[in-house]
Write a structure and sequence with these properties.
Number of domains: 2
CATH topology of the largest domain: Rossmann fold
Bound molecules: nicotinamide-adenine-dinucleotide, uridine-diphosphate-N-acetylgalactosamine
Helix content: 25-40%
Largest sheet: 7 strands, parallel
Strand order of the largest sheet: 3-2-1-4-5-6-11
CATH superfamily of the largest domain: NAD(P)-binding Rossmann-like Domain
Number of strands: 13
Strand content: 15-25%
CATH class of the largest domain: Alpha Beta
Shape: globular
Length: 307
C-alpha cells in the first residue's frame, strides 16, 4: 500500500482519482482550497488539507512522507484565466513549481514522482489532425500558457532535481461531478443538466466544430499508469480517444439518449473557439499501455445514470 497526495482532489477529476486509489487500497491525502471543488465529492476516507497550492510551505507540508503526488489543482476555467491573469498564473504555474520543488525531498529526504495535468490547450489551434504530442505548442490563452510553462518546469524537475514526472494533456473530459454551473463549464455537463430537466440548449455557432471527448474513468486510468511509469525524461502524453464528434451530433445524441424533444438553438460563435480538436492517443497506448476505451455513448449513459 502506498500513500499519494492529490492536489485538487476535491474537484471533478481529482475526486474520481481518489475513489480509484482508495478502491485498490492506497492511502490518499488531498490538498485543496475548495474554490471549485467540494468536500462531498470525496466519498471514501481521505486526509483533507485545506490550503493553497500557490503557498510553498503548505505544499511542502502536504507532500511530507507520501510516495507520489498527482497534481491536479488549478483554475480550470480558460475564461477565468484570461480575466484574472496574474492570480491564475500564481496558481497554475507557481503552484506547479511548488509541487515539483516539494517533491524533491518528500520521502526520507528523497524525491517522489509527480504526475500532473496539462491540457490540449497547450496546442492552441493545431492545423494537423489528429494532434500528436510532437505537434507545435501554440497556446492562445493564459491557461494554455501556464500549462505549457508547467510542462517546461517538469523538465527542470526531472533533469535538474531528480524528480520523476509524467504529464498528461487532457482533451475534453466529461463525467459525473463535473460542475455545470458556469457558462464556461464543460459543454456535456451543461447540455445534460439542462436537457434532463426540459431546458433547451444553445450551440455556439453552426455546430460543425468538433471535440475529442474523453470519459473521466479513462482519464483516471491514464493518471494511474503515469504514476507507475514516471521517469526522469519528463514525458508528456495526450489523453484522448482519437475520435471526434461535432457539437451538433453531440447535442442530438444526448437528446436521443434522454428521449427528449427539447429545442436545440444556435447562437453566436464563441470568440476564439477552436474549430476542430482531435487527439492522437497512440503514444500513451504504446508507452504506458493505456487507452481510452469508453465510447461517447457509453460514457453519456453512465453520466445520465449518475444524475
Ligand atoms: P475542478 O475545478 O473540478 O478541479 C480543480 C480542483 O483544484 C478543485 O477541487 C479546486 O478547488 C482546486 N483548486 C483550485 N485552485 C486551488 C488552489 N489555489 N489551491 C488548492 N486547490 C485548488 O477541475 P477539473 O476539471 O477536475 O480539473 C483538474 C485538472 O485537469 C486541472 O489541472 C485542469 O486544468 C485539468 N484539465 C481539465 C480538463 C477538463 O476537461 N476538465 C481539460 C484539460 C485539463
Ligand atoms: C476545453 C477545455 C479547456 C481547454 C480547451 C483546450 C473544458 C471545460 N474546457 O475547452 O480547459 O483545455 O479545451 O482547447 O473542458 N459550447 C456550446 N454551447 C455551450 C457550451 C459550449 O456550443 O453551452 C461549445 C463551445 O463553443 C465549444 C464546445 O462546445 O465549441 C466545447 O466547449 P467547452 O467549453 O466544453 O470546451 P473547450 O473545447 O472550449
Amino acid at each position: 500500500m502506498a500513500t499519494y497526495l492529490i492536489t485538487g482532489g476535491c474537484g471533478f477529476i481529482g475526486s474520481h482519482l481518489a475513489d480509484a486509489l482508495l478502491a485498490r487500497g492506497d492511502g490518499v491525502r488531498i490538498l485543496d482550497d475548495l474554490s471549485t471543488g467540494k468536500r462531498e465529492n470525496v466519498q471514501g476516507t481521505c486526509e483533507i488539507i485545506l490550503g493553497d497550492v500557490a503557498d510553498s510551505q503548505t505544499v511542502r507540508q502536504a507532500m511530507q512522507g507520501v510516495d507520489g503526488c498527482f497534481h491536479l489543482a488549478a483554475v480550470a476555467s480558460v475564461a477565468r484565466s484570461n480575466e484574472d491573469w496574474v492570480g491564475t498564473h500564481r496558481i497554475n504555474q507557481t503552484g506547479s513549481v511548488n509541487v515539483f520543488d516539494a517533491a524533491r525531498h518528500a520521502k526520507d529526504g528523497q524525491p517522489v514522482p509527480v504526475v500532473y495535468a496539462s491540457s490540449a490547450a497547450t496546442y492552441g489551434a493545431c492545423q494537423t489532425l489528429p494532434i500528436h504530442e510532437d505537434a507545435p505548442r501554440n497556446p492562445l490563452t493564459a491557461y494554455g500558457a501556464d500549462k505549457l510553462g508547467s510542462e517546461l518546469h517538469a523538465v527542470v524537475a526531472s533533469g535538474v532535481h531528480g524528480v520523476p514526472t509524467c504529464g498528461f494533456r487532457f482533451f475534453n473530459v466529461y463525467g459525473p461531478r463535473q460542475d455545470p454551473s458556469s457558462p464556461y463549464s464543460g459543454v456535456i455537463s451543461i447540455f445534460t443538466n439542462r436537457m434532463r430537466v426540459g431546458q433547451d440548449v444553445t450551440i455556439f455557432g453552426d455546430g460543425g466544430q468538433t471535440r475529442d471527448f474523453v470519459y473521466v474513468a479513462d482519464v483516471v486510468a491514464h493518471l494511474l499508469a503515469g504514476m507507475d511509469r514516471a521517469t526522469g525524461e519528463a514525458k508528456v502524453y495526450n489523453v484522448c480517444t482519437g475520435r471526434e464528434i461535432t457539437l451538433l451530433q453531440l447535442a442530438l445524441m444526448i437528446r436521443s439518449l434522454l428521449d427528449s424533444k427539447i429545442a436545440i438553438h444556435h447562437g453566436e460563435p464563441r470568440a476564439g473557439d477552436i474549430r476542430e480538436s482531435l487527439g492522437d492517443p497512440r503514444r500513451a497506448t504504446a508507452e504506458l499501455g493505456v487507452r481510452a476505451e469508453i465510447t461517447l455513448e457509453d460514457g453519456l449513459k453512465r453520466l445520465l445514470d449518475s444524475l
